[in-house]
């Protein structure tokens, strides 16, 4: 199964930790990854296949709806669904990468990724209602991970494993697409307050020890006005591991 929880940020006290059952149709290991919310509901998205969006009441932490992604406009051959709410709470952005084989990565020859904007009131009531959509193309090794709206709701930022996208939230047209250095994976593309900059969380190949290769978790600043990276990446994991002589992979 999967779990959902609630924490008091002021005290750090765990207020709720509930276990939710796995859906019978989900054959790829389930996990919550991208998620959204309204004032009263928490909407975690199952990254596995077949995917769904759960609607959990914040007060009771009870599962109210399990919204299947089976929809005429949503292809069955996809991998790694993620999503997030718009700042005004009226919409929910859902995206996934298409794959030659449902739920499988590498994706084969498939190059497409799809973004769907859902009606939030319908979703909270248990129904997928698509209000607009777009298809992006890159290469078979690209894959959507987590993303976020800017706080003004004007842009949608989506990490894509080997690249990153900035979309116009209303038209879903590509504002910018930025490729990573070889081997570097972006898993988050999160705007900072003020919407001038965003943070990229990276999984970056590195030498952990002589003859031992691994991955370091790093962060990088992105300028949303110039649509380009700023400065150098900063190690979050290895910068602590090396002084402690820890030679294991750590990722963000």
Detail the topology: elements first, then pairings:
Layout: E1 2-7, E2 14-20, E3 32-37, E4 41-46, E5 52-57, E6 63-68, E7 78-85, E8 91-98, E9 112-119, H1 120-124, E10 130-137, E11 147-149, E12 155-159, E13 163-168, E14 174-179, E15 185-191, E16 197-209, E17 212-223, E18 228-235, H2 238-241
Question: What do these coordinates show?
Answer:
By secondary structure, the protein is mainly beta. Helices cover 4% and strands 51% of the residues. The protein has two helices and 18 strands. The strands form five sheets. A four-stranded antiparallel beta sheet has the order 3-4-5-6, with no helix packed on it. The model has no long low-confidence stretch (mean pLDDT 95).
Summarize the structure.
The chain has 252 residues and is mainly beta. 4% of the residues lie in helices and 51% in strands. The protein is built from 2 helices and 18 strands.
Question: Characteristics of this structure?
Answer:
single chain, 252 residues, mainly beta, four-stranded antiparallel sheet, 2 helices, 51% strand
Report the end-to-end length measured between terminal Cα atoms.
Answer: 23 Å
Main beta-sheet strand count, sense and barrel state:
4 strands, antiparallel
Extract low-pLDDT stretches.
Answer: none
Q: Taking Cα atoms only, what radius of gyration do you get, to the nearest Å?
A: 18 Å
Q: Enumerate the strands of the largest sheet in spatial order, edge to edge or round the barrel.
A: 3-4-5-6
Share of β-strand residues: over 45%
The helix-and-strand class reads mainly beta
What shape does the CA trace take?
A: globular
Helix and strand sequence: EEEEEEEEEHEEEEEEEEEH
- The DSSP helix count reads 2
Number of E strands = 18
Mean pLDDT: 95
Helix content: under 10%
